[in-house]
Amino acid sequence: MRALRFTEFGDPSVLHVAELSDPQASPHEAVVRVEAASINPSDVKNVAGQMDWTVLPRIPGRDFAGVVVGGPPEWQGVEVWGTGGDVGFTRDGSHAELINVPVAALARKPEALGFDEAAAVGVNFVTAWSGAVETAQLTEGETVAVFGVSGGVGGAVAQLGRALGARVIGVGRRKPDPATPAAGAIDEYVVLGPDTPGEIRRLTDGRGADVVYDAVGGVTTNAALGSLARRGRLVVISATGTRTVDIDIRNLYRNETRILGVDSGKLNVTGSAEILRKMLPYFESGAFKPLPITAYYPLSEGEKAYAAVAVNTAGRVVIHPGKA
């Protein structure tokens, strides 16, 4: 098979197309023909050496959608999708014509989504669901403030909050593009700035948000903390600009604040499949929609595709491994 591969860390130029032996099915491993695979910013960071659990040499790529071509008879020919914090890091990833995954990680792709759309879901929605539902336990009637609502994870959290019956306040330096699903999922929008906590409290009658999902982190941490209601839950998934933050501990304990860290890299392909199965009905019904896809590349232009993501191309970038 053909695959993107890197044997050393660096910019996208370290990627090259390699001819490798086809992965083989076993009693516990299936083989999926990759029809489409998106590129996440974390894939770019992986190639750059910023993910300290990566083992070289490696085929990168976390998200994928494709067809099972090896494995249990009942899975033969089934359209599947997947992602994982081990895929592309400690096990070979999706930027290849074929990928091995545990049989337990096989998850049926929503019929409502094509391969390209399904490949654009993984990291964003799994991280959103893991943080908002399974960790913060966001429920109907609560208010969630989403810092970084214009990004992939933030936009997924906004859609998730809307589907759960929560009130959604989007926070960011710019409003979500009207063409993105997040734009229709938020009830109010607050510009990120010095008075963000005050504005969120104004919108909540002085109470604050029950959950703040901070998809930015670092430079936004104190604003996020200041936006929380009593016993509010702060979900942190990233650290932008700085890894250290001064926190007023007295304010923290007096507000009975909960700070919850979520690392999607700790959720392997099998654990991610469990979440994808839970989200399946939402995608089938149209309640959840992936970000628009703005660029497509064949495997032979993998370096160019990675470079596009590295410069923050809007929307999702998708690789078609089977195309020349």
From TrEMBL:
Keywords: NADP
Start and end residues of each Enoyl reductase (ER) domain: 10-319
Entry annotated with the keyword Ribonucleoprotein: no
A single MF term (Gene Ontology): oxidoreductase activity
Tagged with keyword NADP: yes
Pfam families linked: ADH_N (PF08240), ADH_zinc_N (PF00107)
PANTHER family: QUINONE OXIDOREDUCTASE
Protein name in the entry: Alcohol dehydrogenase
Organism: Mycobacterium sherrisii
